[in-house]
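Fig. S4 source data, part A: sequence.
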Amino acid sequence: MKKLKVALFDLDGTLIDTEGQYTEIWGAIGRKYRPDLPDFSQVIKGTTLTQILDNYFPDKEIRHDVVAELDEKEAGMRYEFYDGALDFIADLRRHGVKCAIVTSSNKKKMESLKKQVPDFDDLFDRVLTSEDFTASKPNPDCYLLGARVFDATLDECVVFEDAFTGLQAGMSAGIFTIGLATCNSREAIEDKCNYVLDNFVGLTYDKIEEIRQHNS
């Protein structure tokens, strides 16, 4: 395996601790507009807002209301990085590794995040949102795009993900995929990725290179 050149990070549930908040938000929206789907917050996990609206809210007025409620809730969310995440990203960049966000979230949500984290764009070399690709996770297109924008081969990249759809996207792209046991247990994701980490605490460039070389 070639030397690591690009690290591709999912956002929610991987780098920032928002999954619980989204479960509450989409759970409330589901109970209000789609009571026929009791597990709505789980059904839509990992998909883009456009996909959610197209698949579950065909009525234009309801779509408008759903988007308005979501925008209001996202503006009031807490965007907190998991312990160790920022130190790890900084260490990767010190070693010349390009770091990118690859998220199913849209640009409007990212603007809400940046109000709380003003230097967010400075932390990464690229931020890819749902507007940048047509097919969302579990389709691999988003991670293939992540490699392409840095002119990197697949074996020069690594994907970090927490959700089943994201893990499938990374693996389907043919990129070494590391699962974060943040929102799902190690047992639930260990057969869906190349390696499992509990968190980013103490993680370094050297440790990731060792993991890649010994588990590829």
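Fig. S4 source data, part B ends here. Residues 19-75 form one domain.
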